[in-house]
Amino acid sequence: MANPFSIHKSTEQGLSVLSLEGYLDAHTAPEFEKTVQAEFEAGRVQQVVECSRLSYISSAGLGVFMSFIEEIRAAGGDIKICGLAPKVFQVFDILGFSALFDIVPDLPAAIQRFQQAPVKET
Amino acid sequence: MSAKWPLWASLAAGCVGLAILAAWFSKYWPASSWQVLPRTELIARARAVSEHFGVNPGNSKPSLVVSLSKPLANAGVSTISPLSVRLSWPNAEVGLDSAGIPLYWKASDEAKPPKTDPSEVFAFLAGDQASSFSGPAKSMGDEASEDQYVWKKTPPPHSDVRERITVSTKDGAIQKAERKVYLFSEDEDDDDSDSVGKQAYWGVFSAIFWTCFTAAIVTIFSMYLLWSMRKALSHRFQGRMAIAAAVIIAAALLAGANADKGSDWAELWAALEVLCVVGVGRAISTSARPKWFSLEQLCRLAPLSKAAGESLAAGVLASPLLAAIPYLIAGCGLFPHSTVVPQNLGVLYSPVPLLDTGNLPAVLFLLGFWGFGMPVLARIIRFRWLRWMVALPLGTVFFAYQTRLVTGPLAAPLTAGFCTLALFWFLYSRFDILAVLTLQLAGGVVLAMFMLAHKGLEIGLPAAALLAVLATAFRINTRGASVSEGDPSATNPALSGFRAEREKLQAEFSVARRAQQGMLPQSAPEIPGYSIAASCTPSLDVGGDLYDFLKLPDGRIGIGVADVSGKGVPAALYMTLTKGLLASVSKDNSELAGVVEEVNRHLHGVTRKKVFVTMALGFLDAEKRVLQCVRAGHNPVVWRQASRDLTTLVAPGGLGLGITASRVFANQLKMVELELSEGDSVVFYSDGITEAMNSSLEQFGEQRLMEAVEKTDRLDAAAAHDSILSTVREFLSGVHPQDDMTLVVLRVGAR
Question: Which chain B positions have a beta carbon within 8 Å of A68's beta carbon?
Fold first, then answer.
């Protein structure tokens, strides 16, 4: 009620695309978590999180990315993040996420990145 | 105590109100042209009337009821005043208009009035108007011994006003005599059709209004409950809710049904139902508590807090403006067709004018609107601008309908409603509900004073009452208790049920809060040539922010700020864990990167997968004036070099703690060395500072923080720290911080 947040699911060339919109904070993170979990359990481990309409992310939101990444990578998949607005990118960047995740400008770049490197090399 | 301006603003509003009333009251007061006799004179006349009819009411004091015919007032009848007074003795009842013209007389059965000729009674009641009446028409009463004589006045052309005199006799003795002035409508035989029709219309309107109002309140209330509890409600609780809803809806329907009787029942019922909702809402609403606190103390006869004195004073000081709003609307020239609705005229004859100014339904409405409606709105809608956009039109309509201060085209009552809302809003937001209620009651008293003074009647009592409240207010403000919402001493231990459970939990939280605050360093280390100041303000009771100072084996001093992801209890638990890890790891390790890597390894082992900790850590070599810094996913440190007038963000690479234990962490972690010189400052902080958001949804941001740091060049650490925090608070201008705020300032002094 307080902060609008929504997730739009789609499929693009076999990749699962989750488009986030609004505020991803402690109240809305569980919804995002459930969605990623459901995708993972359905065997869709190649996920693109598209954030061009995401206006805010809190530490609880960032926590969702962390909680699945190891399992997903162990299953041969990955989470690529794209479309971050500069302010949101700054939050990812301060935490050092650019070293842990592939963060690319847009959806085509994310698809391309999956072709080049299905799992990010660290 | 620094924020006294709202009190001055209230005083200014009051002065404006007085000026408006002084200029326009006598011109627009609907009753200004009516003659009004003082109470004692009126009683003497009524006694004389009864004696004229042969019944001596004795010397006992009569009971006195004042009523006002609004249709007659609006029609501008000039023969008698629309304000009438009915005086009752045990053996007789006399009605007079406010100028003392006799309108009504009735004897009790025991009074045994003497036999009188009805024509003489008619001549007495009609006075010099007798020639314009025709009649009488005689008819039989219910019993054979009862007769009724009716005279009717020939109406002037194009006038809706009719007048009639009725005399009822029993065995020739006068039982009842009445002179009645009324408005003519379609059917002359049905005298009251006009007013009855109007009342029925109001009854339907009231029923619809109150049902909608109640439904809306119940819906909002249930949504609020479901949302705030976030779990299935017990069957018993659901049952109680259903009963409460049924009672409320029944009350609303009764209110509508009763409205056509023209009584105050409708408002009383509505007020009761609002009270029910307020009571339940009050019991569970937490955000409203501070606004209720003074009133609660007052009801409990507990010592009032100093703030309550300000609320009382503000309510009294601003009250003339509330009283003046209808006169402002009528006099400002924007609404030429609007007139002031006459209100509270009973005050003119009341032995205690003060009591006649109290308006119970209005008080309960205010409680409902400000005590329940606004807090619920605040919980549902987080954005202040959106809240305003919802509350403004709703409140305007609500106050326009509820107060009904002026008549005229829709814009006039709406403007009056808006002005009323604005004034109450000011007092509610700057003070509390006590101020709101004081404003309403004092507003009535001010209006009463103007009415009494205008008619040349005594105003000593209401004036003295207002002054007494003001004096009490200032006394409370200077001598009152220093208690506030949340103090254990201010709450009653003998509470039961839901509320007691919650308060127990709150008490435990305040213990937890104190314990957690106790874990933070009680004082900053004293380092020759440096000053340090630090604070951590949790947004909730407990928080996930942390700062600490370390004594390293090699003699250096560690300064750290950390922030656990998430909020509340889970974050607080990890915060204590991080604090312990940092202390134990740094006990035998002076190597900055090594300390941070080890803390990361431990945290990764124990934290749940989605929890992480960010940290900025600096090791200060006080002698060499070198500060080694790392940033584990934390906000960059602000380095102010005063001598070079340079402010930079120190942002070496680094991942948050607890995310990964792999070599990626060590690879990413970079260290920088700051060579400090005199006048420099280094500011560590948490994102609660930079992401602090004001009501226009702007973040404080790094740029404002850097500017705030630049302004503190000549201050020591403590003063600089306070200055930066007050800049943030100014930016927030009253918005409660959404996140914990931690700030550590290191100032380099002379060697």
Answer: 609
How far is residue B496's CA from residue B481's CA, in Å, rounded to a whole number? 26
pLDDT at B630: 95
Give which of B219, B561, B565 to mutate to test A binding, by max A Cβ within 10 Å.
B565
Contact assignment for A66 to B659 by CB distance below 8 Å:
yes
Q: Is A89 exposed, middle or buried (0-12, 13-18, 19+ CB in 10 A)?
A: middle
Query: For the structural domain made of A5-116, what CATH number should be given?
Result: 3.30.750.24
Please state the separation of Cα B744 from the chain's center in Å.
38
Q: Tens of pLDDT along B55-65? A: 888 788 787 77
Tell me if residue B545 falls in helix, strand or coil: strand
CA–CA gap between residue A87 and residue B640 (Å, rounded): 24
Question: Distance (Å, rounded) from C-alpha B22 to C-alpha B451?
Answer: 12
Summarised one tens digit per residue, pLDDT across range B145-203 is 788 888 888 777 777 778 888 888 888 788 888 888 877 753 444 444 333 333 444 45
B566–A2 CB contact, under 8 Å: no
Indicate yes or no: CB of B610 within 8 angstroms of CB of A26. no
Please provide the size of chain B in residues: 751
DSSP E strands: which ranges in B76-121?
Answer: 83-88, 92-97, 102-107
Q: Is B460 left (phi over 0), alpha (psi -120 to 50) or beta?
A: alpha
Q: Which residues in B lie closer than 8 A to residue A1 (C-beta atoms)?
A: 227, 380-381
Comparing CB atoms, the residue among A1, A63, A70 nearest residue B566 is A63
Strands B626-632 and B671-675, bridge-based pairing: antiparallel
Q: What is the DSSP string of B466-494?
A: HHHHHHHHHHHHHHSB---TT-GGGS-S-
Torsion over CA of B696, B702, B706 and B712, rounded to 10 degrees?
A: 60
Q: Lowest-confidence range among A73-82, B158-167, B431-440, B684-693?
A: B158-167
CB-CB: which of B227, B608, B633 is closest to A95?
B633
Q: Do A100 and B611 touch (CB under 8 A)?
A: no
Residues 6+ apart with CB under 8 A from B668: A96, A99, B653, B654, B655
DSSP bridge pairs for B65: B86
* CA–CA min distance A19, chain B (Å): 20
Residue whose C-alpha is closest to residue B445's, from B460, B426, B423: B460
Answer whether B97 touches A (CB < 8 Å): no
Per the CB < 8 Å rule, is B565 touching A2?
no
pLDDT of residue B241: 63
Q: What is the ipTM of this complex?
A: 0.85
Q: Chain A: which residues have CB within 8 Å of chain B?
A: 1-3, 26, 33, 59-60, 62-64, 66-68, 70, 94-96, 99-100, 122
Asked if pLDDT for residue B218 goes beyond 90, the answer is no
Nearest Cα residue to B275 out of B215, B394, B392, B360 = B360
pLDDT classification of B495: cutoffs 50, 70, 90: very low
**pLDDT band at residue B78 under the 50/70/90 scheme:** low
| Angle formed by the axes of helices B265-284 and B235-259, nearest 10° | 160
- Residues B278-320: pLDDT tens digits? 555 554 444 555 676 777 666 656 677 777 888 899 999 999 9
Q: For B693, which DSSP code?
A: B
Partners of residue A60 in chain B, C-beta under 8 Å: 565-567, 610
Stated pTM of the model: 0.49
Give the pLDDT of residue B231. 42
3-class SS letters over B446-467: HHHHHHHHHCCCCCHHHHHHHH
Contacts of B664 in chain A (CB under 8 A): 99-100, 122
Is pLDDT of B239 > 70? no
